[in-house]
Amino acid sequence: MISISLCMIVKNEEDVIGRCLASVKDVVDEINIVDTGSTDNTKQIVEQFTDRIFDFEWIQHFAAARNFSFQQATKDYILWLDADDVLLEEDREKLMALKKSLAPDIDAVSMNYHLSFDPEGNVDTLIRRYRLVKKEKQFQWIGAVHEYLEVGGRLFDSDIAVSHLPLTHDHSRNISIYKQLIESGTTLTPRDTFYFANELLDHGQFEDAIYYYELFLTSKLGWVEDNIRACYKLADCYSHLHDNENNISAILRSFEYDIPRPEACCRLGYHFMEQGRNYEAIFWYEQALMIKQNPNAPFQHKSFSTWLPHLQLCVLYDRLQQYELAHAHNELASSFIPNDAKILHNKKYFQRILKQQQEDVSS
User: Fold this and answer.
1) pLDDT at site 363
2) Measured between alpha carbons, how far is 290 from 177 in angstroms, rounded to an integer?
3) Domain 172-258 is in which class?
4) Which residues form the Glycosyltransferase 2-like domain (predicted)?
5) What CATH number was assigned to the domain covering residues 261-363?
6) Chain segment 289-346, per-residue pLDDT in tens
7) Is the domain defined by 4-164 classed in CATH 3.40.50.2000?
8) Cα dist from 2 to 5, 33, 58, 159, 251, whole Å
9) Which of 237, 226, 234 is nearest to 251 (CA)?
10) How far is the C-alpha of 5 from the C-alpha of 8, rounded, in Å?
């Protein structure tokens, strides 16, 4: 059986750190917590789980802090989490099973990262990250912000999931770090350029975001998945600026990198739906449902291939007075989010419409 060191960096996480550590304490063999300057009760809570608490002076560089945390590990493998992450019971059991079965020549293990959930609690958005890595490989974190762990060797994709359950979020932290880097004369890497553009978009600085998305895409140095996401986010910028032509161009631009993804199809469907071009909208929403996604794809937004296109098709077929088809799509949407208020309203609406049609036929 392998042994595992948990390595984390934290600052002012008193609201969530106990929940995180409680979810993993019985699975890992060592807990290493690197504190970057907490002024709340974070350390006191951590002391209930471990005495391996280390201080690290914050230098506006996440990779530096994470690499320091990895240096504290003494076990075979390193598991990393953020303070607002949780291992649910099913995933704790899976990780314990992996501890017993993992081949010693595996260098890194990826896990799903559940980022958001639909109203029914089902996973809506997830990505894959390498969470468990062999200590002796000395893999390094890279990047001042939105850092990533550079791994290699023999890799294994597990079905374990880490659930991201934040209570709050510091919206200004990341963009401030990027702006400080630029002001200091640092040249952003293509990856940092993409993530800086994301921060600008999130802060409503749409023109600046467009500039950096274009800078990223025209560099032709980005990861294909980031290229596709950049196209979607460019479309969001243009949508906020009410620039419909460039919005569509940005969505179609994603086709340069791969076959149409369900998200692109839904975006196109919405464009035509807003214009009242119902048949064109139906075509694209049906495409979203037909495309088969790789279950191990690094980024997945399940709503674009499940309830969302069905719900939109319900609206579109209702516009065309094809009520049976509209009702059928509402029922299919209901199979994913049965308690959604819109779907429950639609059920009553179609029951009334279809009943009236039957009465009209019988009379």
Assistant:
1) 67
2) 42
3) mainly alpha
4) 5-134
5) 1.25.40.10
6) 999 877 778 888 999 999 999 999 999 999 999 999 999 999 999 999 999 999 999 9
7) no
8) 10, 21, 32, 18, 46
9) 234
10) 10
Burial class (CB in 10 A: 0-12, 13-18, 19+), 165: middle
Task: Report the C-alpha gap between 125 and 278 in whole angstroms.
Answer: 28
Read off the pTM.
0.88
Question: Which sequence spans correspond to the domains of the chain?
Answer: 4-164, 172-258, 261-363
Q: What's the pLDDT tens digit per position in 102-151?
A: 999 999 999 999 999 988 888 999 999 999 999 999 999 999 999 999 99
Residue whose entry in the numeric block shows the structure tokens 């994301």: 198
User: Residues of 309-342 as b/e, b for ≥16 C-beta within 10 angstroms?
Assistant: bbbbbbbbbbeeeebeebbbbbbbbbebbeebee
Q: Are 188 and 199 in contact (CB under 8 A)?
A: no
Classify 77 as helix, strand or coil: strand
> What kind and span of H or E run contains 33?
strand 30-35
User: Which pLDDT score, from 0 to 100, does residue 73 have?
Assistant: 98
Residue 85's closest CA among 23, 35, 128?
Answer: 23
360: confidence class by pLDDT, cuts 50, 70, 90: confident
Do the domains at 172-258 and 261-363 have one common CATH topology? yes
